[in-house]
Design a protein that fits this description.
Blueprint (H helix, E strand, L loop, with lengths): L1 E5 L16 E4 L7 E4 L15 E4 L9 H6 L3 E3 L6 H16 L2 H10 L7 H8 L12 E5 L3 H12 L3 E5 L5 H6 L5 E3 L2 H7 L2 E4 L13 H6 L4 E5 L8 H10 L2 E6 L4 H4 L4 E3 L8 H21 L19 E8 L4 H11 L4 E9 L2 E8 L5 H9 L3 E6 L1
Parallel strand pairs: 1-2, 1-3, 3-4, 4-5, 6-7, 6-9, 7-8, 9-10, 10-11, 11-12
Antiparallel strand pairs: 13-15, 13-16, 14-15
Helix pairs in contact: 2-5
This protein binds nicotinamide-adenine-dinucleotide (NAD) and (2R)-2-hydroxypentanedioic acid.
The site of nicotinamide-adenine-dinucleotide has 33 residues, from helix 2 and helix 5.
Keywords: NAD, Oxidoreductase
Catalytic activity: (2R)-3-phosphoglycerate + NAD(+) = 3-phosphooxypyruvate + NADH + H(+); (R)-2-hydroxyglutarate + NAD(+) = 2-oxoglutarate + NADH + H(+)
Protein name: D-3-phosphoglycerate dehydrogenase
């Protein structure tokens, strides 16, 4: 029985994969084999020695110390694309909110008390103050064209916008997903210079933190409208508040409220709702559950963000899974132990990612405890599991 600790509200659809006969899932389980998390920050989390993996039901992993986890032999999974449609649909709302005076107009309706006559007559008089531009015919700059950015670019085209996209690290899969009518931009400053609307869909990394700063805003058109459903820290808050107060930025629609932004004019803020749809939550929970289940049961790694992806069909009597450093001679040091104990390898694979590597051996026999201990004690070995 594996124990999985739920750190956030995870869709119950996870239980169709992590079933009661094999998994204990709860918020209070002790000494878990796995953590199931959404956006909680784990940078100060006290990871226990027996923790094997973390399933992030979502894509952003800036909240998880990936290197520390790899160093401790904890595999971190995420769910690429699982909530991209949810964000794309909210982007349409953001585009409308970035353009029109919908919020104040709704406030007017809500607080209308009838004292000035029937609302049908009164609203015909007041509505002119709630006019705004249409986005059809305008230019949208998309920064980051992965699972969300590609969908956003395509739907903006369908809204008759002219779309530019900037993504220096675009994967081949993402490139296939983007319409050929989207203009590829290789200099980020061109997105700033030519866009009426800018939408951000990058992860939060050292490179993207404060990507939208004073210098970037200075290059933008007057009255630019900026949408941020990526991460708050990609936009420098001081620069954004200054831009909004000056009127250089006409509107900032973002999923990451802060006290200062709430108090600034022309912001439209939602409480991190991009992936909060029934479908996205269920997709992400099921994807992360499948990834953790395959790792815990078979040692296979799919959609990891800190260790190499490795999948091997099961064969043989036992499977030995070893997370180790990516150093010369690692396999050569393991082999004599296999030979000494008469362990024959039927099938194997070894993959690396940065400083870390993962080797899986399907062998013809049970593995003696002594061999496991000696493998564990080898220089550069981080974790050994036998399944
Ligand atoms: N608000 C929400 O609820 C919500 C939901 C989903 C995703 N997100 C955020 O949006 C981000 C994107 O999500 P996704 O599913 O499209 O992820 P993704 O990994 O599919 O795509 C991210 C893209 O950003 C690109 N990129 C990386 N660094 C870049 C840089 N410096 N400049 C330009 N492009 C860069 C990558 O090449 C990749 O194509 C996530 O990392 C997450 O932070 C937020
Ligand atoms: O709601 C969530 O779990 C976060 C969604 C989103 O920010 C992500 O990175 O996938």
């Amino acid at each position: 029985m594996y124990k999985v600790k739920l750190l956030n509200n995870i869709s119950p659809s996870a239980r169709t994969i992590l079933t009661d006969d094999r998994y204990e899932l709860s918020e209070t389980v002790e000494h878990p084999d796995a953590l199931f998390v959404r956006a909680s920050d784990l940078h100060k989390y006290p990871f226990e020695k027996n923790l094997l993996c973390i399933g992030r039901a979502g894509i952003g992993v800036n909240t998880i110390p990936l290197d520390e986890c790899a160093e401790k032999g904890i595999v971190v999974f995420n769910t690429p694309g699982g909530n991209a449609n949810g964000v794309k649909e909210l982007f349409l709302f953001a585009l409308a909110m970035a353009s029109r005076e919908i919020l104040p107009a709704m406030e007017w309706v809500k607080t209308y008390d009838g004292s000035q006559g029937p609302i049908e007559q009164r609203m015909e008089k007041v509505k002119k103050q709630y006019a705004g531009p249409e986005f059809a015919g305008k230019t949208l700059g998309v920064i980051g064209a992965g699972n969300v950015g590609s969908r956003v670019a395509n739907i903006a085209l369908a809204c008759n916008m002219k779309v530019y996209a900037y993504d220096p690290y675009l994967s081949a899969d993402a490139a296939w997903a983007i319409s050929r009518h989207v203009f590829r931009v290789s200099d980020l400053r061109d997105i700033f210079r030519y866009s009426d609307y800018i939408t951000i869909h990058t992860p939060l990394t050292d490179e993207t933190r404060n990507m939208i700063d004073d210098k970037a805003i200075a290059l933008m058109k007057n009255g630019v409208r900026i949408i941020n459903y990526a991460r708050g820290e990609v936009v420098n808050e001081d620069a954004m508040i200054k831009g909004l107060n000056d009127g250089k930025v006409a509107r900032y629609v973002a999923d990451f409220p802060t006290k200062r932004l709430i108090e600034t004019k022309n912001t439209v803020l939602t409480p991190h709702l991009g992936g909060t749809t029934f479908e996205s939550e269920s997709n992400c929970a099921r994807m992360a559950a499948k990834e953790m289940d395959d790792y815990l049961t078979n040692g296979n790694i799919r959609n990891s963000v800190n260790l190499p992806d490795v999948q091997l069909e099961r064969s043989g009597a036992s499977r030995i899974c070893i997370i180790h450093r990516n150093l010369p001679g690692m396999l050569a040091n393991m082999m004599p132990l296999f030979a000494r104990d008469g362990i024959n390898i039927e099938n194997m694979t070894n993959k690396s990612r940065g400083s870390y590597a993962y080797s899986v051996f399907d062998v013809n026999t049970d593995v003696p405890e002594k061999a496991i201990q000696e493998l564990n004690a080898l220089d550069g070995v981080i974790r050994v599991r036998v399944l």
